[in-house]
Specification:
Length: 309
């Protein structure tokens, strides 16, 4: 197959997706890489019908890669994830509305352009978790205890743009991150960015039926195949606090081989339709005649198109 990966500058040294690219090439597939943040892209030539079997995006919120993925979709190319699904989760304000509208356990969400506007929220709802609506990787997330502390300097990485605020969900200081690899679910624990002093060993943990149901429903509601969900176990049960397309898949066993196989299956079947009737826990079948060997980290950047170096 012929695939094109869009990789933002932030991820140019990351194992995900570079090791997936390496694995796909080892399996005999042709993989082009576009670096949207550091190269001239001859977009009229790069994005054309029939140029690739699928385009795959690993990008930051607000990055230029999403526009290129939408351009690929506009000429009928398969995208992984579905480009409409990515837009739905990249805007956290929009994602909260969609999720609550479908009955998913998401906190009440407020939006404002300036943090001081959140002072209108009843003090009984504090503390609030305040973060950028287009944030990623825990950037600029902060816990605001009382209204008078809204104007205190935020963490590094804060920038202009829409903000969202949600009442803090009391929890143990441990985040539950659930990954979906095209229907196969894995749960991991990690330290909450709001409680950095709380020591948590990142590890895979058992997945409860309730958390599995919520995670699978998110995939259905948003149309995602490769995604991660941040869940807190609050006093009233699981609460969804973030959704990410194409995450790191940390602690997922044989993540590189599994994600690579899922990308190929989605490309062959035209995207999300590949798993529209799948069951939670179903394992994607690796493409014959290839096996799924362990994959070492590449020692040099993947080859690119579009003039990047």
């Amino acid at each position: 197959m012929r695939l094109c990966f869009l990789v933002e500058e932030q991820y140019r040294h990351d194992g995900m997706p570079l090791e997936v690219i390496h694995q796909l090439r080892a399996w005999g597939h042709h993989v082009d890489v576009v670096w949207p943040g550091r190269s001239l892209i001859r977009i009229s030539e790069a994005v054309r019908a029939g140029s690739h079997d699928a385009w795959v995006l690993k990008t930051v919120s607000g990055g230029p890669g999403l526009t290129l993925l939408e351009a690929a979709a506009s000429v009928g190319l398969t995208t992984v994830n579905d480009v409409r699904a990515i837009r739905g989760v990249r805007d956290k304000a929009l994602a909260a509305v969609i999720a609550r509208g479908r009955g998913l356990p998401v906190p009440v969400t407020y939006a404002a352009a300036r943090p001081e506007e959140f002072a209108e929220i009843a003090e009984a709802e504090f503390p609030l978790v305040v973060k950028p609506a287009d944030g990623s990787s825990g950037r600029a997330v902060r816990l605001v205890a009382t209204p008078d502390r809204l104007l205190e300097p935020g963490p590094d990485g804060a920038a202009g743009g829409l903000l969202i605020a949600q009442p803090y969900v009391p929890n143990s200081g441990t985040d539950l991150k659930v990954y979906s690899v095209a229907g196969e679910l894995y749960a991991t624990e990690r330290c909450s960015p709001l409680h950095p002093a709380h020591a948590v060993r990142e590890r895979q943990v058992p997945l409860t039926p309730e958390v599995a149901r919520i995670t699978a429903e998110i995939g259905t509601v948003f149309g995602l195949d490769l995604y991660g969900v941040d869940i807190l176990l609050g006093p009233d049960g699981p609460v969804v606090v973030d959704i990410n397309d194409f995450p790191s898949f940390r602690q997922v066993p044989d993540a590189v081989a599994r994600v690579s196989a899922a990308v190929l299956d989605l490309a062959r079947r035209g995207g999300r339709e590949a798993f529209a009737t799948g069951q939670t826990g179903a394992k994607p079948t690796p493409p014959p005649p290839f096996t799924a060997p362990s994959v070492p980290r590449p020692t040099r950047p993947a080859a690119s198109i579009g003039g990047g170096r």
